Amino acid sequence: MKFSVQPLVKPLRTALLPLMAALVLAGCATVPSGLPEIQTTAQFKEQGKEQQQQGATPPAGFTRAVPAEAQPRGAWWLAFNDPVLNSLVEKADVNNGNIQAAAARLAEARAVARSANADRLPQIGLGAGANRGAGLDKATASTRPATMTNIGATFSYEVDLFGRLSGASKAANLDAAGREALLQSTRLAVQAEVAQTYLQLRALDAERALVREQVEAYRDTLRLSQRREQAGDIAELDVARVQTEVSSTESDALALDRQRAQVEHALAVLVGDSASSFGLSGADWSTTLPSIPPGVPATVLTRRPDVSAAQSAVLAAQARVGVAQAAWFPDISLTGAAGYASPEIGDLFKWSARSWGVGALLSLPIFDGGRREAGVQGANAQLDGALASYRTQVLVAFQEVEDQLAAIRTLQEQSVVQAQAVTSAARATSLSDTRYRNGYISQLDLLDARRSELRNRRQALQVKSAQYQAAVGLIRAIGGGWDVPAPVAAAGTAPTTVAAR
């Protein structure tokens, strides 16, 4: 009797056609590479305005920015020439909890990357075992219970023909690079927050001193008013008005004391100290306000750690798309074992008990219910999200720089006008005090003049504080200090796709 298998061949080939087509499509699929091109001006808009006002011509044309995430950002806080600020920033670098947590996440990402890299290397191990059962000795065909002992070395290696392991390793390394950039971003953010909090504290000290000085001036006026009341020159109503100003100004001073205590406690947390043991004494506000050089190029944003982290996230997502596509190809593994095996422990290490074996395994799922296709779709979706996040991060970086440059420009103009207002208010107070003592004006006129002077002096201090805050904010926005050398492209280094005009 003959059995024909020919009818089964055609259905089998037909069943394998979709699989072959999928493998061909997967092999032809290309993983998108590079970063999206985002065209920006080579110079920030606010600095272009300044150059135009000075008669200079802003640069034109397009320039590609070289990646500069490894470029040193400098000890930018030294530009403020404040030893207390220097010590606080250095202390925060060591003790701040957010920096420590970011460093721990970086260490974790590096460990994952090392694990992914290890999958590409041969795996070698030692093993030993003992089995007892019937029929283990095939040579004698005995059915009596026996014990089989073995010891030896094992070897396994997955042949990465289609780049699945290398893609996974690349993605893990890019994740680690992104974590390193995020650590730098966290460190820069903490340094900037320490500087801004410290400068806010010094501004509050100056404002408190001003308000306390005004309280003493009101008290002098109160004592004068009380003497004049006793002499019958003024009514009790005038004394009550001055007493109201004294109490109201003292209340403002106490509110500033409360605000300073809260800012000091926040600074303690930033530098890693307990608010109960941390304290900064009041001091003169002698911190230098650094000047921003004209023509800071927009390419400095390529060293911003968060932009660098967004770039690494895009590249890692691209690598994972390749890993997902490689799942359509078969996995090929090579295995080997060599050692000794014997039913008697005493004969285990005899030359006659040696054993070895080699093998190869090819694995390819035929039907997985759409799991691999879903993996490719998920990887592509993650890539789309990473690209969108990268573009948004770049645009936000430009927004932050433009915001701070606009603030610095307008605050400089405001400080000039406000200084004029302080000078005029001080002169008006001096004249009003003289005329009041000589009886030419009423007490209300004098109080109005003092209130106006105090208001303008406090406003001037607030403008000055805002200038310091904007300077630190600009440094944070551009990713560090501006006194750094221009990056030099290494051989074979591709420029980033953030184009600049």
Automatic annotation (TrEMBL):
Coiled coil spans: 444-471
UniProt KW keywords: Coiled coil, Lipoprotein, Membrane, Palmitate, Signal, Transmembrane, Transmembrane beta strand
Position of the signal peptide: 1-26
InterPro entries: MdtP/NodT-like, OMP_efflux
One Pfam short name: OEP
Cellular component terms (Gene Ontology): plasma membrane
Entry similarity comment: Belongs to the outer membrane factor (OMF) (TC 1.B.17) family.
Protein name per Swiss-Prot or TrEMBL: Multidrug efflux system outer membrane protein
Keyword Signal applies: yes
Disordered as annotated region, ranges: 44-63
Membrane topology: Lipid-anchor
PANTHER family according to UniProt: BLR4455 PROTEIN, OUTER MEMBRANE CATION EFFLUX PROTEIN
One function term, GO molecular function aspect: efflux transmembrane transporter activity
PROSITE patterns associated with the record: PROKAR_LIPOPROTEIN
Subcellular location: Cell membrane
Domain of life: Bacteria
